[in-house]
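User: Here's a structure from my thesis project, written as structure tokens. My advisor, Dr. K., wants to see whether a designed sequence matches the one we expressed. Can you design one independently, without my sequence as a hint?
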């Protein structure tokens, strides 16, 4: 259970944000840090995990991901800062 995560990456405080969903957050964050894929996150050096949520079911995680992607930037920043006011890289806590 609780094996699905939505996560938000950034490259520095209050900069570019990347939202996605995965069933293996540790592996996925390492791929971002290794620049394993030629993707949006690689091009913008997005490898700092600033926020994540856990879900039991794929559909719930995907629904939340879509919801967050529709939010305006200010609302996303507030969500991050409520949980992680210093914008530290949470990957070290995984």
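Assistant: Designed independently from the structure alone:
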């Amino acid at each position: 259970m609780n094996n699905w995560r939505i996560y938000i990456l950034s490259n520095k405080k209050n900069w570019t944000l990347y939202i996605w969903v995965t069933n293996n957050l540790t592996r996925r964050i390492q791929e971002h840090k290794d620049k394993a894929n030629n993707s949006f996150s690689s091009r913008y050096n997005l490898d700092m995990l600033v926020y994540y949520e856990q879900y039991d079911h794929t559909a719930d995680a995907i629904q939340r991901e879509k919801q967050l992607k529709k939010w305006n930037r200010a609302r996303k920043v507030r969500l991050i800062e409520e949980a992680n006011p210093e914008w530290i890289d949470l990957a070290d806590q995984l």
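When you compare it with your expressed construct, this may help: The helical segments are 25-34, 40-43, 58-70, 73-83.
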